[in-house]
Amino acid sequence: TVSEFRNSFTNRDKTLGGLLAASGFDDQSCLSRYRTELYRRNTPHRPSRHLVQRLRSHESLQKRCGPGTDPYQKAVEQLRSGQSSKIDQNCNYLVWISYSGLGNRILTAASAFLYSLLTNRVLLVDRGKDMDDLFCEPFPETSWLLPLDFPLKDKLANFSVTSDESYGNMIKNKVGVEKENFIYLHLDHGYNDNDKLFFCEEDQRTIQNATWLILRSDVYFVPSLFLNSLFEDDLNQLFPEKDMVFHHLGRYLFHPTNAVWGLITRYYDSYMAKADERVGIQVRVFEVESGPFQHVLDQIISCTQIEGLLPQTVSHEIAPPATNPKTKAVLFTSLSLDYYEHIRNMYWEKPTSSGEIVSVFQPSYEGYQQSGKKRHNRKAWAEMYLLSLTDKLVTSGWSTFGYVAQGLGGLKPWIMFRPENRTVPNPPCRRDVSMEPCFHSPPFYDCKKKQGADTGNLVPHVRHCNDISWGLKIV
Ligand code: GDP
C-alpha cells in the first residue's frame, strides 16, 4: 500500500543512486529533492559511476567559481571592461537565456548543462519571469541563478540571429573570436548554417577558449553533441546506456519548488496513488483554431484501444460485477477540457469489457498557452511531473511538454503522430524507440567532410525521431 511504501522512507536511497549530492542542501526549503522516488516507484535506471563523480566535481566547480566568489567577480569585471584578454583562471561560464515554453526551457537547460559538464563551465541561468519560482537550486551551497547585476542582463532578451556577437556572425564577418569578450551562441530552431558550426570539432576548439558563452536555444540539442568526436569518449563513459541522458540530467537538475511540489503531491495522493495502474495521456493540439476536434478525440480513442492501454466499453448497460476489479487512473493533461470529458463520460455511461474500473481526471484546462504567468507555469510544471509518475504514457508528437514527462519518468511513451489535414494518422500512435527527447532542428552537415550529410545515419545511437522525420534522438 501507499503507506507501507512511504514508511520505508528511512532506509531508502534518497540520492537516486548517487545522482544527487547527499548533503549541502536544506531539506525543508526543497521537499521534492529527496522525495521523488516515493512517487516515482519504478526507475531502475542508475547513473554510471563516472557520471556520479563528474556531478560531484561539477558541483565543486559551481561553488568555487559561482556568484559571490572572487573568480566570478574577476570574470564579470573583464566582461564589463569590454576587454577580450583571457584572464588566467579556471573558471569559464555558460549563461543560459530563459526563453520559450516551459517544456522547451527544461530541455534546453538540460542540454546547456550537459555542455557545461563536458567543457567544465559554470552554468548560470537567467531567471526570466519564474525560473526561481519553479525550480530549486540544483547545486549545493551556491546558486545557479545569474545575479541581477550581471553586466549583459539587459541585453539578454535582444540577442538574435542578427547579433554581431553571435558565433555565426563572427564566422561570417571573419571577426577573430579572440577579439571578443564573450560569444553569443544562437542555437534557436531558426539558426543559420554558420551558427550550426557550433557542433563541429574545429569550432568547438575555438569556442572553448572564451570565458563567457551566452546561449539562446529552444531545442534539445544533445543528440548533435553525440556526433562530435571531441566529446565521444567522455559521453560513452558518462552514459554507458545512451538513452538515459535526459532521464539522469533532468532528475538531477529539476526539482519542483515547494509550491509546485504541493500541487503534485496533493493531486497524486487524491487521484492517482491508490489505483492499480496509472495511465497518462498528454494532449497537445497544434492547430491554429482552438477546437475541439473530432479527429483528435478519435485518435486518442483508437490509440489507447488498439494498444490495449484502456479497455473497450460494451454496449449493455450493466456488466456482471467482477471480483477484485482492477482500477485504472487516467491522468489527462490538455489546454482544453473536451477530450477528457468525452473519455470520462465514455467510462461512466458504459461498462468496460474487462471489468476494470477506469477513473479519468484532468488537473487544469488553461485554454491557451500563457507562458509569462507564474501560476500558469506552476501548473504546467506540476502536470509534466504528474505525467512522469504514470506507469504508461501516451504523448502528442512534436511536444516538448510530453518529452519532459517521458524523460523524467524513464518511460518510452506511445506517441500520437501529428495529424495532417485533420484526419487520424494510420497508425494513430506507436511506442517510441527511446525515452529521450527529439532534437527538432539538427544540422545536416558532416563537419569532417565539410559537406551536407544525413546526421541520422552516422552512428547507431543517433537516429531520426518517430514523430519528426528530420529530427534526431538518442536511442
Ligand atoms: P510544447 O509547445 O508542447 O513543445 O511545450 P511547451 O511546454 O514548451 O509549451 C507549451 C506551453 O503551453 C506549456 O509550457 C504550458 O504553458 C501550456 N500547455 C500546453 N499543454 C498544457 C497542458 O496540458 N497543461 C498545462 N497546464 N499547460 C499546457
Radius of gyration: 23 Å
Helical stretch count?
A: 16
Question: Which structural category fits the helices and strands?
Answer: alpha/beta
Sum up the overall morphology in one term: globular
Layout of SSEs?
Layout: H1 2-7, H2 49-65, H3 70-81, E1 92-96, H4 102-119, E2 121-125, H5 131-134, H6 167-172, E3 183-187, H7 193-196, H8 201-207, E4 212-217, H9 222-225, H10 229-238, H11 245-253, H12 258-272, E5 277-283, H13 294-306, E6 327-334, H14 338-349, E7 357-361, H15 374-388, E8 392-396, H16 400-409, E9 414-416, E10 429-431, E11 445-446, E12 451-452, E13 462-464, E14 472-474
Parallel strand pairs: 1-2, 1-4, 3-4, 5-6, 5-8, 6-7, 8-9
Antiparallel strand pairs: 9-10, 11-12, 13-14
Helix pairs in contact: 4-11, 4-16, 11-16, 12-15, 15-16
Guanosine-5'-diphosphate binds at residues 100-104, 284, 333-335, 364, 366, 369, 371, 376, 379-380, 383, 399-401.
Outline the structure in words.
This protein is of the alpha/beta class and 475 residues long. It folds into two domains: 27-220, no CATH class; 258-474, Rossmann fold, CATH 3.40.50. It has helices at residues 2-7, 49-65, 70-81, 102-119, 131-134, 167-172, 193-196, 201-207, 222-225, 229-238, 245-253, 258-272, 294-306, 338-349, 374-388, 400-409; strands spanning 92-96, 121-125, 183-187, 212-217, 277-283, 327-334, 357-361, 392-396, 414-416, 429-431, 445-446, 451-452, 462-464, 472-474. A six-stranded mixed sheet has the order 7-6-5-8-9-10, with helices on both faces. The chain has a four-stranded parallel sheet with strand order 2-1-4-3. It has a two-stranded antiparallel ribbon with strand order 11-12. Helix 11 crosses helix 16 (400-409) and helix 15 (374-388) crosses helix 16 (400-409). The protein starts with a helix and ends with a strand. The model has no long low-confidence stretch (mean pLDDT 94). Bound molecules: guanosine-5'-diphosphate.
